[in-house]
Design goal:
It contains 3 helices and 6 strands, in the order H-E-H-E-H-E-E-E-E. The chain is α+β, with helices and mostly antiparallel strands. It has a single domain (about 5-95), classed as P-loop containing nucleotide triphosphate hydrolases (Rossmann fold, 3-Layer(aba) Sandwich). The protein has a two-stranded parallel ribbon with strand order 1-2. The protein has a two-stranded antiparallel sheet with strand order 3-4. Strand 1, helix 2 (about 40-55) and strand 2 (about 55-60) form a beta-alpha-beta unit. The protein is globular. The protein starts with 7 loop residues before the first helix and ends with a strand. Residues about 90-95 have low confidence and may be disordered.
Length: about 100
């Protein structure tokens, strides 16, 4: 396959598919939604949710707080390399 012909989003999906083919129990995804259109994004996140419900641990690192609000069951908010104690993300707002 000529990887240079793939779009950024296609490369992201290929990388995730490669990892999922190994059937890991823990999946760490760093900004996996970069370069995805809304349709691919929804399919991807639905698949991650399904895997999580099947017992896989999914750790999603994202600046997309809308994605976090919609899909994360637990969040850790970080600033300057550390977490912000007592802070949670809920319905589009940070609350201390």
């Amino acid at each position: 396959m000529l990887l240079h012909l793939l779009s950024r989003g296609q490369k992201q999906r290929l990388a995730v598919a490669s990892i999922l083919s190994m059937e890991p129990d823990i999946i760490v995804l760093d900004e996996p939604t970069t370069g995805q259109d809304r349709g691919h994004l929804n399919k991807f996140l639905a698949r991650m949710k399904m895997l999580n419900e099947a017992g896989k641990m999914i750790s999603l690192i994202s600046h997309g707080m809308g994605v976090v609000a919609e899909y994360a069951s637990r969040t850790i908010v970080m600033k300057d390399g550390g977490d912000i104690d007592g802070c949670r993300y809920q319905r589009g707002f940070f609350q201390a």
